[in-house]
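Journal club side-thread
Mid-discussion, someone asked how the predicted structure for our own chain would compare to the paper's figures. Pasting it here so we can look after the session.
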Amino acid sequence: MDQSLVYSLIIGIFTGVSAGYLGSLMVLEKMALVGDALSHVALPGLALGILFNFDPLLGGFAFLVASAVIIWHLARVTRLSFETIVGAIFTLALAVGILMIREVEALTEALFGDIATVTYVQAIAAVVISIASIFLTRIIYNKIVLSMISEELATSSGVNVARTNLLFLSLVSLVVAIGIKITGTLLVGFLVVVPAAAARNLSSNLFRYYVLSAAFGAISASTGVLLSGYSGLPGGPLVVLSGVTLFIATVIIRWATKFRAL
């Protein structure tokens, strides 16, 4: 197996697990589109990396984390929903990024990913960030669920809702950033939406839900990477197709289960 494919597979598995796990909260909070739209904010950072000859992913990281802080602050000040603010910011970032990247090949890689150029350092970074994101999210998972039920109840229980939301949004930004190399900025948001939606079709409790979300994320990403490696087709669209196929399978299973119960 080609070395780049091995590194891509490592990134795919770890990113899939962490994105699926964090995505389970995004779907519960009805913030699924936030994860998708947030991925586009990385494009100007990627463009700066291409223009000034440094790793574009570093620029993407910086822009995503900075955007998470800005979005969180604007939500507190304006009381607008995360979806509204992210929707405004991501369209601006997408437009600016496309204007900054003049090379068609570089723009295609930024938008759709490229598993042929994955490095050892990027793979290690993906593993470390994914593990750290899962660990930190696990610590605040119940706090976020409680704040979803009632912010007043969470506050009275000693939860700093604003700080918890900022940490979670930052973690989502980091996970989205490491997935860009595999699926690109246009498609990486899929990993925090569809695996969790598929898991919800088969889950009867919270534990089963987030475990299946992580598992489906890993399966979708790794299957897409392997298909890309052996077919030569872009990895991003194949990851999406793999995940959507999995989602359709869970819909059929759920429907069949309900039909048998009648």
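Post-session note: The two ends are 49 Å apart (CA to CA).
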